[in-house]
Amino acid sequence: MGGGARQRRGRVTITEIAREAGVSVPTVSRVVNGRSDVAPGTRARVEDLLHLHGYRWRPPGARVRAALIDLVFDDLDSPWAVEIIRGVEEVAHAGGVGTVVSAIHGRSGDARRWMTNLRARASDGVILVTSVLEPVLHDELRRLGVPLVVVDPAGSPALDAPTVGVTNWAGGMAATEHLVGLGHRRIGFVAGPPRLLCSRARLDGYRAALDRAGIPIDESLIVPGDFYPESGFTGCAALLDLDRPPTALFAASDQMAMGAVEALRRRGLRVPEDMSVVGFDDLPEVRWSAPPLTTVRQPLAEMGKLAVRTVLRLTRGEPLDSPRVELATDLIVRSSTAPPGRGFA
Amino acid sequence: MGGGARQRRGRVTITEIAREAGVSVPTVSRVVNGRSDVAPGTRARVEDLLHLHGYRWRPPGARVRAALIDLVFDDLDSPWAVEIIRGVEEVAHAGGVGTVVSAIHGRSGDARRWMTNLRARASDGVILVTSVLEPVLHDELRRLGVPLVVVDPAGSPALDAPTVGVTNWAGGMAATEHLVGLGHRRIGFVAGPPRLLCSRARLDGYRAALDRAGIPIDESLIVPGDFYPESGFTGCAALLDLDRPPTALFAASDQMAMGAVEALRRRGLRVPEDMSVVGFDDLPEVRWSAPPLTTVRQPLAEMGKLAVRTVLRLTRGEPLDSPRVELATDLIVRSSTAPPGRGFA
User: Fold this and answer.
1) CATH architecture of A2-62
2) Under a CB-based contact definition with an 8 Å cutoff, are residues B49 and B38 in contact?
3) Considering chain A, what is the average pLDDT of its residues?
4) How many secondary structure helices (H) and strands (E) does chain B include?
5) Among A28, A66, B51, B224, whose CB has the most other CB atoms within 10 angstroms?
6) B140–chain A Cβ distance below 8 A for any pair
7) Given CA atoms B235, B240, B244, B248 in this order, what sign does their dihedral have?
């Protein structure tokens, strides 16, 4: 059973390979080192033998470690994660940089394991998406000289790292003004997690639009959520249980908007006839939700692209134009919004 | 402007660092090499100076390159990609392995650039998702000794690599039998791209279920699609334009099912009252589509996990139990299916 011997790596010497291939030792060495001065037929024969004997092929450039960046999420359970990955990968791939994707689940143990892995692979930069690192890990990145860029700043604005965000406040205002412009006066709001700055900004945009329209803010129309569909379902149900439910609802994420639409459907209410619904994100699938969702578009892939460009500039020691960038949001009007109907108006 | 000098790496010698820190050269050396026999205060002072002078910190383990696997998609434009990434990342992360995500867009140039990057980062294994590599790239992986595992086999079944798939045929049959069991006799089918084996298997499962129920197959009820929502919309519209439209529809992907639901909504038809709709995938968001979608669940994250375990076994030279594994699909019944209504039955 010669196969067993072939499995063991490095047991066969270069000299034996040379003898078996009928070439000189320096020729084998030239093949191993990826040099071009070897006849193609000879190279193929030697490579086959190296492979056969379990030599792990090391391409010529392998000793110079290739560039890697780490893209870190709290959780990989949202369809918007893939939009950010798509943008990051596109720019990184084109530049020969590998994108290592990780999730740390907001758990200290996972974050520490990630840091250990990051050190071991000597990653060149980190993009952190809507997640918070403990100060000790920030310090460690700084000590390692690994630059950090934060996408969609979630935690303390005092965080000492460049950020790429979107105009959450302006987006929240645009969504609410759209509903006001359609004639709605009682507009519900399903909020995002309060620990995230973007949640605060969207809520403040909602308040600002109502203020500007001279509509008093009714705190009973503001319900908590966590960006996931379940909380949109629950939040919308709570609003429907009010003595005077709203005629329109602005959910601070598309997923919560989808949960809200389902809560309405369960009660036999139609969108937009009985209630208008606006989301936030513009995930690809909400173009195809029933009905297609009016929403505030976040340029997620563009945010990813900009984050890579920023982190690569930092690895090269180049200055940044600005340490904090906010990309514009756009209101996308589809079929889930209309003037208030005969519902509870 | 001392800052300028600090930016330039390696200009300051270990001797100078030692002098500035007020310690001996061997002490600086011990810090640089990550040894433990340095007092914490001294270590911190030396590390700060190293950082200040732009020394790139190399952790002790950095010379031994960390494990990496490459996870390759054709496109990162589908919400099911994130499910696979989630599964792969979870197992890889726990094992200290980094997951490098790439998209090659079915384009030769992108695939070659990816291969160049893969060689440069000396990745340990490759997981290829519903994508096809040119034979020359397969040969190169083999020559590099980098094991390959294919998720959801898309191309030639003769491909010389272990595969992780799902029971697409059984899933197609279960979806169709569910509709037959509800009393449907005219069941439309929106197919996936014919180049993918999984599309063929789902279609064959549909045919087998109809055969078994003694329902003659009407080829006019089978329309082409490409897994994306638009094609579900178009396919469903084509079925509705038939003289005798079906009373139920099985779409070979959830995204096509969502497009079909929207086509029905646009014509004022309701799901499931006017037409039942079944999808395939069980993406997280279809729990929240209006109505929640009956679908065939693919365990996407489980497929990712199994693929990592398989590729890691191969990197260690361990034998596989089986080179081809198919995980079971499950029919998940929600609210988009019901007995045929008064519609066109």
Assistant:
1) Orthogonal Bundle (1.10)
2) no
3) 87
4) 12, 12
5) A28
6) no
7) positive
Domain ranges in chain B are 2-62, 68-166+300-327, 168-298
In this prediction, residue A57 carries a pLDDT of: 47
| Among A343, A201, A208, residue whose Cα is nearest residue A276 | A343
Q: Which pair of tokens denotes residue B44?
A: 């911190």
B143 touches A at CB < 8 Å: yes
Listed residue (B185, B198, B178, B194) closest to B231, CA to CA: B194
pLDDT value at position A222?
98
Give me the amino acid identity at A333.
Answer: V
Segment A40-63 mean pLDDT: 62
Same fold, A68-166+300-327 and A168-298: yes
Chain B residues close to A109, C-beta within 8 Å: none
| Tokens 């040099």 sit on residue | A35
Per DSSP bridges, beta strands A276-281 and B248-251 are: unpaired
Query: What per-residue confidence (pLDDT) applies to B2?
Result: 35
Q: Which of residues 239-268 of B touch A (CB under 8 A)?
A: 255, 258-259, 261-262, 265
Quick one: tokens of B338? 């019901």
How far is Cα B5 from Cα B20, in angstroms, rounded to an integer?
A: 15
Q: Please give the share of chain A, as a percent, with pLDDT higher than 70.
A: 87
- Given a cut of 50, whether residue A8 has pLDDT beyond it is no
3-state secondary structure (DSSP) of residue B58: coil
User: What does the alpha-carbon distance between residue B176 and residue B170 come to, in Å, rounded to a whole number?
Assistant: 10
Nearest to B93 among A56, A113, A262 (CB): A113
Residue A292, helix vs strand vs coil: coil
CA–CA separation, A224 vs A235, rounded Å?
Answer: 7
Contact of A284 with chain B, judged by CB distance below 8 Å, is answered with yes
- Say which CATH class A168-298 falls into: alpha beta
Which alpha helices (H) appear in B182-253, and where do they start and end?
Answer: 197-212, 229-240
> Which tens digit of pLDDT belongs to each residue from A210-260?
999 999 999 999 999 999 999 999 999 999 999 999 999 999 999 999 999
Q: Which fold, A68-166+300-327? A: Rossmann fold (3.40.50)
**pLDDT per residue as tens digits for the range A105-156:** 988 899 999 998 898 888 999 999 977 788 888 889 988 889 999 997 554 4
**A304 interfacial to chain B (CB closer than 8 Å):** no
Please indicate if any CB of chain A lies within 8 Å of the CB of B301: no
Distance CA B342, CA B345 (A): 6
Structure ipTM: 0.77
Residue B76 DSSP one-character state? S
